[in-house]
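Summary for the steering committee. One of the milestones for this cycle was to obtain a three-dimensional model of the protein with magnesium ion bound, which we needed before selecting residues for the alanine scan. The sequence and ligand used are listed below.
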Amino acid sequence: MELLAQVLVGGVLLGGLYALMALGLALVWGVLNIVNLSHGALIMLGAYATYYLFTGTGLDPFAALPITAIVLFVIGWLIQRGILNLVIRGPMFNTLLITFGIEVILTYLAQLLFSADFRAINPPYAGNNFRVLGITIPLMQVLAFAIAIGLTVAMWLFLLHTRVGRGIRAASQNLVAARLYGVNPRSIYALTFGIGSALAGVAGGLYGTVSQINPYIGGPLTAKSFAIAIIGGLENPLGVIVGGLVLGIVESLTALYAGSTYRDVASFGVLILVLILRPTGLLGRTT
Amino acid sequence: MADALLETRALTAGYGEMQVLRDISLAVQPAEIVAIVGSNGAGKTTLLRAISRLIPCGGEVTFDGKSVSHATADEVFGSGLVQVPEGRQLFDRMSVEENLRMGAYRRGDRRAIDDDLDRMYTLFPRLSDRRRQLAGSMSGGEQQMCAMARALMARPRLMMVDEMSLGLAPVIVDQLLETMTAIRKEGVTVLLVEQDVHAALSVADRGYVMETGEIVREGSARELESDPEVQRAYLGEV
Ligand SMILES: Nc1ncnc2c1ncn2[C@@H]1O[C@H](COP(=O)(O)OP(=O)(O)OP(=O)(O)O)[C@@H](O)[C@H]1O
Ligand SMILES: [Mg+2]
């Protein structure tokens, strides 16, 4: 019983991080109508950015996250302005192929620059944990969870209550009307993709504090983000919290009952199930 | 006619290979209400799309003495040339109030925006009760009011209204037309595209008649109303 509680808590904590991972993908999908297959690679880059800021400058990894966010924002902005903008009006198949290509290139570059070795972000307090009701809770996981959920909620408030957030939602709901009312699609798209990448970057930095990283973590994380975005829907950023928690708990339970090698099998099982049961999630935005 | 607010010269536009507008030249003077009438498919909506730069076009468009032929849609909007598009095109999953705030997207003067919101709720009391309602869930008439209010929130110098009366009860149409004359008194120029020729000409100063992408007639509203051709084709009189 205690073990189950322990595992559930672990699942929830992981789920919060998953929510942040998916947030950027869902945002970009909803606004630009692009399923960004390089999203996981951007998470991976964020993890390395945080890792090198930590090991290179001694900066606390959590304090390094704003810098990671800025770096990834710029990378995302450039990818959108330089590449995706050229195919934005094309069919979804084209943008899928192009973002897949970007994923391959980023992964290859990462392998070249950072080597294929496993790395971990281990500040001195990394081993700390505390016990609540007989459950051991690692400090790093709690911090990652809190930052991820906090950032997701902040993003939700930003979209809901600021002028620019309203412009982003306007562009996703009715592009023609948005253009007629002063929204410049080019800049709103670049901004949105930049924000999506920055969110991916921060999620990557947090991932690096609770898990090991290497250049190949991107692919599976893209797929998980995709599943979460479909479960949660694209309209409300808080939806990804639901999706993230579902996936986090399912994975943790699978690890408990079937063994941790089945973790990813479980999350892809969820993805396939969702695609079968909620195909409308996919077709939510085809106009 | 030297200082027209809006002027098009030899404007052409279309969709892909298909040319819809050929050689449209018209002028709208400050504080005028000008109607554009014509049968279905004449190209009226296309004309407004071209002026708003939603679609590429040839020829010249000047607004307030400056060429906007190479501007983008958001720049045209920023210069005060605001369109209430056909089919309203509200942000369906935003509240009424958010839709109105989108009208003020290019404005930074928070205090004045709040004042203007209040003005809109006075002008359209039915919107006032529905501030938090999602725009997509309102009736057609309410949506049209919301669309007009959204445009007015931009403090337009010229408002182009496309097919305002479509699907609305005559009472509501009359109400909206009254609003139109009221805002003209405040110095807003109006370009009105209408199926309901009678309604349009009843408030307009001048009008243009479009047929298959060309302007075939122009004149004062009075002249057009009594023009035998116009009567036969659009006013259903023999
Ligand atoms: N998006 C589009 N793509 C291709 N052709 C179009 C498009 N929109 C309109 N057309 C065509 O352009 C022509 C003019 O259409 P437009 O909508 O401008 O007419 P209209 O005068 O506004 O008609 P209505 O009174 O029915 O609104 C029509 O033949 C129409 O089929
Ligand atoms: Mg039309």
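Key point for the committee: The first strand of chain B starts at residue 6 and ends at 15.
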